[in-house]
Amino acid sequence: MKLADFGLAREIRSRPPFTEYVSTRWYRAPELLLSSPNYNSPIDIFAMGCILAEMYLLRPLAPGNSEADQLMKLCLVLGTPPTDWTEGYQLATSRRIDFPRCPVTPLETIIPTASSEAIDLILKMLQWDPNKRPTAVQCLQHPFFSHDVK
Predict the structure, then answer these.
(1) For the chain, what is the domain count?
(2) Distance in angstroms (rounded) separating the CA atoms of residues 20 and 11
(3) Residue 7 has pLDDT above 60, yes or no
(4) pLDDT tens-digit profile of 119-131?
(5) How far is CA 88 from CA 38, 51, 146, in A?
(6) Predicted model pTM
(7) Does residue 8 sit within a domain?
(8) Nearest CA-CA partner of 77 in 111, 51, 120
(9) Domain of 79, in residue numbers
(10) What pLDDT band is residue 79 in, cutting at 50, 70 and 90?
(11) How far apart are alpha carbons 110 and 57 in whole angstroms?
(12) Which terminus of the chain is less hemmed in, N or C, by CB atoms within 10 Å?
């Protein structure tokens, strides 16, 4: 699968500042929702996790109607961001946002038709902290893409 939004296309060596407003809210990584001025390829991995979940659900995973609602919907699925995501909490504080206290909703209950490999890959792609998301190569090496998976 290829993600393309040529309105945000940049050369690989582009330097900040990048575009501040990013469209297609339902697929936005949390760091974008929190207005991080620094972002890179992990935002695409997050978007792919949202799209993969949507392919099973046949509807968006977290269809927020504003940036604040989008963050709330992500919290309802992924749980409250872990406290070790320092950048996220700093961004939230600077925007006067308090993350709601939410437990993780097991993805298996939201997407019962997904295999355990699919669930595992989606969860890895949807990490709050962009530094903890897998790279595209790591995603392709995931057992979800094994020929043995049914």
Answers:
(1) 1
(2) 17
(3) no
(4) 999 999 999 999 9
(5) 12, 22, 33
(6) 0.84
(7) no
(8) 111
(9) 24-145
(10) very high
(11) 8
(12) C
